[in-house]
Amino acid sequence: MKKILIVTSVSTTLALILKDQPSYLSNYFDVSTASGHDPLCDHLISDARTTHYFLPIRRKFSPLNDVFAILGMIILIKQLKINIIHSYTPKAGLISSIGGFLSKVPVRIHTFTGLHFPYTSSPVKYLYLIHDWLICRFATTVLAESKGVSRDLYSARLLNNPPRVLGNGSIVGVDCEHFSPYITTLRNDYQSSHDTPLKFIYCGRVHKDKGIHDLLRVFTSHLINSSLTIIGPNESDLDFTKEPFCSNQKITYLGMQQDVRPYLLDSDVFILPSYREGFPNVLLEASSMELPIVSSAVSGAEDLITNDYNGWLFSPRDIDKMFQLIQRIETIPRMRLKQMGKNARKRVLELYNQQSVRSHLISFYSLF
């Protein structure tokens, strides 16, 4: 049985994004996982079917620490006798590809889930380019989470050919049975009527790279009648307990929520104004809950969304266009929005359901 080591920079990615995927893969392969520490998520890594190992991986630029992480990776690889190493996230890719190369692991896979260099300026841009170039040189196989990521890697001449995208993209897909609007226990007594303002929702990190300042600028306008609910950890300089937010009845910040499904179900439209992504899984989850999507035209969103079918796209940082789209959506009949939501779920069922994504990954591993 092939021995596979799945590596992420921090335990957060394993616990909150990959979730039970390594456990599922253990039905077919001997799977172990490794990551750096994250105090908030380390306790969530508990799986009887796979063994997890912590390595001194740090996400930030730290050359000396990276050397120790590579040495730890070499020791772990030798101990487990790994045949395939598969990394996600940038620093894990660097540590795994170099450590795997030095340990003579025959198959060294890295999946690029998002890129920094297309969205930064010199000289930081060149540091990111060198970092990603090293991953591409030491990995035997490079994958991209979406067509947009594949295009950017090839355009930057980091690879001689565009990297492969497994299936239709996304590293995990979406569990359409879990994210379903037809689970009756999720339903609230109150449902939006034709007379109430539209309810938009954003789920994700409250961070400048997610376009959160642009989003709040739009919804603090008196020309927008819709409400906005924000869910996710606050990683910005924003204080929602102070003006202009605390007295704004249209904006509600709920912080972290263990289960976002009831809030998605109680909303009319999902919005994501992010500046950069790989393939935002939250768009798949919202689509599976039958919400039409308003999103910046970032990687992944471009693959998922067709204008006026299951959502709308606008250029990243284009606040005026986002404002105009929201004003236009406010005039669309609710039945039309509901139909677009059904179109959204239909698309993820056909192209991005969890089982399909996992089947593509199993078939890919079986090639080696």
Topology at a glance:
Layout: E1 3-10, H1 11-18, H2 21-25, E2 30-36, E3 51-54, H3 63-80, E4 84-88, H4 90-102, E5 107-112, H5 124-138, E6 141-144, H6 147-155, E7 199-203, H7 212-219, E8 227-231, E9 251-255, H8 261-265, E10 269-272, H9 281-288, E11 293-296, H10 301-304, E12 311-314, H11 319-329, H12 334-351, H13 354-365
Parallel strand pairs: 1-2, 1-4, 2-3, 4-5, 5-6, 7-8, 7-10, 8-9, 10-11, 11-12
Overview in brief:
By secondary structure, the chain is α/β, with parallel strands linked by helices.
DSSP summary: helix tally: 13
Q: Which runs of at least 5 residues are low in confidence (pLDDT < 50)?
A: none
Q: Multimeric state of these chains?
A: single chain
Question: Would you report the number of β strands?
Answer: 12
Strand order of the largest sheet: 3-2-1-4-5-6
CATH-assigned fold name of the largest domain? Rossmann fold
Overall structural class, as computed from helix and strand content, comes to alpha/beta
The value of Rg in angstroms is 21 Å
* CATH H-level superfamily title of the largest domain: Glycogen Phosphorylase B
Write down the CATH class of the largest domain.
Answer: Alpha Beta
Ends apart, CA distance between termini: 12 Å
Shape: globular
Kindly report the average pLDDT value: 92
Strand content: 15-25%
What sequence of helices (H) and strands (E) makes up the elements?
EHHEEHEHEHEHEHEEHEHEHEHHH
Could you say what the CATH architecture of the largest domain is?
A: 3-Layer(aba) Sandwich
| Total count of domains | 2
Q: Biggest sheet, in brief?
A: 6 strands, parallel
